[in-house]
Amino acid sequence: MNIQSRSQKSPRTDEEVIRSCGLFRGLDDTQRAVLTSMAVRKRFKQGTPIFVQEEACPGLFVVDHGLVRVFRLAPNGQQHVLHLCGPGQTFAEVAAIGGFALPACADAAQPAGCVMIPTDRLQQELALNHQLCRQLLTGMAFWVRHFVQLLEDIALRDAMGRVTRLLYDSPCDASGRIQLPGAKKDLANHLNLTSETFSRVLRRLAEQGVIEFDQDRSVHVIDAQQLEQLSGQSQNTDQ
């Protein structure tokens, strides 16, 4: 499991936020400095819309703190959660780099702070800086691999496998406590499960002694080894 401290230095500099971003893992110090020079700080209160799908993309966002919900809105008003983006993660990156309209909406699921790299400045730099283009391809390759893995999980894993994979991949503190990265209904929607099925799987894990619930909505992992096994080898069929 990915053990992390919940405390973070605050505030982080723009360069620290960009350095923490997985999308930019292939960039050297020179190219990170280029992006840092473009950075604009954005802060959003909980529930604040950040952008709406089909609008022009304002920029590439890197989350510094908080949680951002990215979702696709259907013509009938139904929502499907595509990402729940926490610190170090990006959103609107494809639209900003590709220069096309936003394919989804975003709002602040929690009070959030982001570093934004404006689309116009990013596009200008990409047109001139071939080294930046080449190095960004590395980060984009990891980004694509992540979403292929997510699609595989939805298509090939049952409910137990999806939920345990989510828990196993979530950061926890040294005592094994995980703060669920978002509301249960959003997490369930993201995993293509109903809220009832998501809650039922959590209850089953608690009954099996794998996890227990704390009063602050966090999940305490009791048996990390069993959680790891379930996240990789679950064959249950709880749909």
From TrEMBL:
<dbReference type="Pfam" id="PF13545">
    <property type="entry name" value="HTH_Crp_2"/>
</dbReference>
<dbReference type="InterPro" id="IPR036388">
    <property type="entry name" value="WH-like_DNA-bd_sf"/>
</dbReference>
<dbReference type="GO" id="GO:0005829">
    <property type="term" value="C:cytosol"/>
</dbReference>
<dbReference type="Pfam" id="PF00027">
    <property type="entry name" value="cNMP_binding"/>
</dbReference>
<feature type="domain" description="HTH crp-type">
    <location>
        <begin position="157"/>
        <end position="225"/>
    </location>
</feature>
<dbReference type="InterPro" id="IPR012318">
    <property type="entry name" value="HTH_CRP"/>
</dbReference>
<dbReference type="InterPro" id="IPR000595">
    <property type="entry name" value="cNMP-bd_dom"/>
</dbReference>
<dbReference type="InterPro" id="IPR050397">
    <property type="entry name" value="Env_Response_Regulators"/>
</dbReference>
<protein>
    <submittedName>
        <fullName>cAMP receptor protein</fullName>
    </submittedName>
</protein>
<dbReference type="InterPro" id="IPR036390">
    <property type="entry name" value="WH_DNA-bd_sf"/>
</dbReference>
<keyword id="KW-0238">DNA-binding</keyword>
<keyword id="KW-0804">Transcription</keyword>
<dbReference type="InterPro" id="IPR018490">
    <property type="entry name" value="cNMP-bd_dom_sf"/>
</dbReference>
<dbReference type="GO" id="GO:0003700">
    <property type="term" value="F:DNA-binding transcription factor activity"/>
</dbReference>
<dbReference type="GO" id="GO:0003677">
    <property type="term" value="F:DNA binding"/>
</dbReference>
<dbReference type="InterPro" id="IPR014710">
    <property type="entry name" value="RmlC-like_jellyroll"/>
</dbReference>
<feature type="domain" description="Cyclic nucleotide-binding">
    <location>
        <begin position="23"/>
        <end position="121"/>
    </location>
</feature>
<keyword id="KW-0805">Transcription regulation</keyword>
<keyword id="KW-0675">Receptor</keyword>
